[in-house]
Fold Trehalose-6-phosphate synthase.
Amino acid sequence: MRLVQLLSVILVIFVAIVLAGEPPGRWWTRDLAVYHISLGLSAALLGALLLTRQPWRHWLAGMWEFLRGERHLPPAPAVPEPSPPPTERKPPASEFRPVARDLQRLLRDLEGERRARDESQVTWTPDALRAILHGDLRGEDVIVVSNREPYIHQYRRADGGIEVQRPASGLVTALEPVMRACSGVWIATGSGSADRAVVDANDRVAVPPERPSYQLRRIWLSPEEEAGYYYGFANEGLWPLCHIAHVRPTFRSGDWAHYLAANRRFAEAVVREAKTDDPIVLVQDYHFALLPRMIHESLPDATVITFWHIPWPNPESFAICPWALEILNGLLGSNILGFHTQFHCNNFVDTVDRLIEARVDRETFTVSQGGKLTAVRRYPISIAWPPVEDMVGKPVADCRHDVRAGNGLPPGQLIGIGVDRLDYTKGIIERFLAVERLFELNPQRIGQFTFIQIAAPSRSSIDEYRHHEEAVNALAARINARFSGPAPAILLKVEHHEAARVYEYYRAAEVCFVGSLHDGMNLVAKEFVAARDDERGVLVLSQFTGAARELPEALVVNPYDVDQCAAALELALAMPPEEQGDRMRLMRRLISEFNVYRWAGRMLLDAALMRRRSKLPDNPVITGPAGNGSAAT
């Protein structure tokens, strides 16, 4: 009998693998060797059945019932049952029990492979994202919650008119095209001088201005609330706590009170904006760690996806926070909690395991607390693909000319570009030191190479940021005093730049240097690659960014190693066009496939699957003939 079982397992597994690898209608075209092997296994199985005198017709019928999911396998009976009449004889469960687990595992693996194959064949576009919403999520609108708004309305100083700005934010860069595709409501803090002037009675304004496709709902915070919630607890506390940038986090009970109140305000706005009792809410970033739990208090059927855009520290570091338990409990109100990298997922699960009472399943990466299950997942964020025409419509030659002429540089000047908020985690000082070292090691580059740093002003009311800005300006001035020849060594542009202008700089540069000391992903790296449809330019990328795990074709460096960074800059400037093209093509191919629509689509597909599972009844308990109960698996 064991010979029959062994041969049946081999045959079923072999045939399943063969057929799973071919599309329907083409499996018979495989090599004749497959046919002969299958025929030989079938003959061996038939011979074994005849030798053991098994009722093969019943065996075959039972096997097909099992494969179709029509037969379940109860536990073996404790007491043998009397044989039924011949006309009613069923194949005993014992015939299938030894192969059941292997077959079920095989079918699950094949289904997982099929799903992965199907997902990889999807061309991720706004239309594909809409199809997910209308198919898997039945057209439900999505509610996004973030602190930063995607559009800011400001009064012009010259004439008092109103202009629209897009903030320099990786979060906005990633989510704005998703909302264009999905519609719905984006809830954010109103921060522009003219924001109140353009909203309706419900504090909403349709955006984008040129072609509205979703609603922006603004929340108004007083200066005291903003100082405590945003500048205080979020950016003087959580931001340095989660980034290894050697800045001490500051925690104040007053800031925590404002953080708690602001999270409550946003939770109330979500409830008011929800059109159903079970909306899909995408909570963005460390400003809203308490929000998932608060949403579920009012909307228990909501599906909350929280994405943590910055790194998650190890348990020892996170335990510094006086309200660590409250933050963890708030985040575990999420149905799905996403991070950029698996390393950050591991850190979060380790933190939960160390600090609070919860059941952690490291095989499925889920956390169960009070009967509430939270899936911890890796979703590396990306950008829209292809870039919109406004970003890349201008020819590269024109970009090169205009950028050099606009900055008073010679036509043949080599250019490096850095694009960051003026933040101490972005490694701007370390980047400037690398440029200085480049000139020390390669004097021929003096006057030939200029590094342009676009630095959007950021959080200037925080002492640490003001001191950082002063240090950056002083260092740039010192390096320029040492090495400027016909052209400056460093051009520091501390001002806001529109996205189209930033892309013009990307397209004009020989090298882009992303030198973050610690970062979740860093979309500047991906934007630079997307901008280079000429397949030229070199990306120098910090190993401490999430992007370094996805773009190994970049020159990956340790930003603290000044000599290594200087060598990478020289290597980039001297790299042959053929090698530049080879590297750039590989990176562009990855970003085109793993774009922002795929990032959002994977989260929404996981949410749809979770919603369907939640509506199923609990697994039944199957009782064996002897009365032994066994939960179905």
Remarks:
- The mean pLDDT is 84.
- The chain has three domains: 2-75+91-121, 130-221+257-383+604-612, 395-588.
- Residues 395-588 form a domain with the Rossmann fold fold (CATH 3.40.50.2000).
